[in-house]
Amino acid sequence: QDNSFEQFIINYCNEKLQQIFIELTLKEEQEEYIREGIEWTHIEYFNNAIICDLIENNQTGILAMLDEECLRPGTVTDDTFLEKLNQVCATHQHFESRMSKCSRFLNDTSLPHSCFRIQHYAGKVMYQVEGFVDKNNDLLYRDLSQAMWKANHSLIKALFPEGNPAKINLKRPPTAGSQFKASVATLMKNLQTKNPNYIRCIKPNDKKAAHIFNEALVCHQIRYLGLLENVRVRRAGYAFRQPYEPCLERYKMLCKQTWPHWRGPARAGVEVLFNELGIPEEEFSFGRSKIFIRNPRTLFKLEDLRKQRLEDLATLIGKIYRGWKCRTRFLLMKKCQIVIASWYRRYS
């Protein structure tokens, strides 16, 4: 119920993770259909980029305002920080404050004067402004670092490398908020170079107890985690997509015309393959570079046919090998019989 600076930066990280989830699933999914020339009706979804911008914008973001308050001369308090937020973010649709000039919040008695509220993707969260400036300005004094660096214990000395007199930097150390923002940016950059798989965990109750299912809580999580939009996109779209070359390479054994070699474009080979298998046209679509399969059961059918075909091919290979082995043994016995017979006739 009481949220301060720590919960604020944790929720900021959650917003960034939700943003990359949206970009890699909902946004990228629909853009790929358009890129591949697939007929598609755009499905609306909430993009939380506006909330991330509210927090991390270099000029008008909350973290930028907090750093500015920590660095400016004069009397700096949590109240002056809140006043600055009210001036800069008063009209933002996801920011609320009792001191805000926006009249719709002036009569909101559930919001104390010393708090502000952000409408995150997972719901509204109220933050106590008390302690924001001190926690963001939590700096390790330079003389303390130097004293610890002079310790005889090697571990303590290694923990405070900034205390080395040869590396003294008179520049003001970065604030806690800016350090966290840089760490989140590094994390996002790292995630964007990967192909992540998402596992969404739903809490069935707040008591962390077994056999208790709170339907309202579960529905709240499903709604605000963006799972409804994700399901709508998946159900309206295609469950599986693959470039033509690997698709033809994997399933060409199912068609006599494409097995063992197809002497033409990969897309034409996939078209021949799917027509030969009798797959309904509404179950797949041809993109510019990929084949799109709508229903998972179509893919399961292809895999079952492939598995059966592999068994048939294994049986055929075994049959041919056994025939070759028996014939080789027969020819060797026949050759030996001729040699024995010729020598027998010579001496008989």
UniProtKB/TrEMBL annotation:
GO terms, biological process: actin filament organization; actin filament-based movement; endocytosis
Annotated Myosin motor domain residues: 1-307
A Pfam family that the UniProt record links to this protein: Myosin_head
Signal sequence range: none
InterPro entries per the UniProt record, alphabetical: Kinesin_motor_dom_sf (IPR036961), Myosin_head_motor_dom-like (IPR001609), P-loop_NTPase (IPR027417)
Cited SMART domains: MYSc (SM00242)
Stretch list, region Actin-binding: 184-206
Keyword Cell inner membrane: no
Gene Ontology CC terms, in alphabetical order: brush border; cytoplasm; microvillus; myosin complex; plasma membrane
Molecular function via GO: actin filament binding; ATP binding; calmodulin binding; microfilament motor activity
Domain of life: Eukaryota
Keywords noted in UniProt: Actin-binding, ATP-binding, Calmodulin-binding, Motor protein, Myosin, Nucleotide-binding, Repeat
Family: Belongs to the TRAFAC class myosin-kinesin ATPase superfamily. Myosin family.
Name the UniProt record assigns to this protein: MYO1B protein
Naturally occurring in which organism (per UniProt): Leucopsar rothschildi (Bali myna)
